[in-house]
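Methods — Computational structure assignment.
A single polypeptide chain was analysed. Its primary sequence is given first, followed by the predicted tertiary structure written as structure tokens.
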Amino acid sequence: MRPDQGSLLAGAFFVPPEVIVEPVTPGPGGYITTEQAARLCGVKPVTVRNWINRGWQTNDGVRKLPVAFRYRGRIMLDPVEVQKAEHATAERARRVIVPTAA
């Protein structure tokens, strides 16, 4: 299997190439777009939009990903808040983050 086709992890889990985490360069003020947030967390952009619109279940109820601001029609997010959302949902979603080789 070629490296661009995905990775094989311990326990024989196949990770498709669109889920492999890539480095993200923040935009103005250190904020990132929903597409960059998805790459950062190894999820699809629709998942990040679901975190914004529907939220995720916590012990205290439902928590939503806060939108920092909109810039030229794009939603800008705080990378720290995005990582909190990813951490809170990763185990339940059974996501495994695979860092790319530098």
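Note: The chain has three helices and seven strands.
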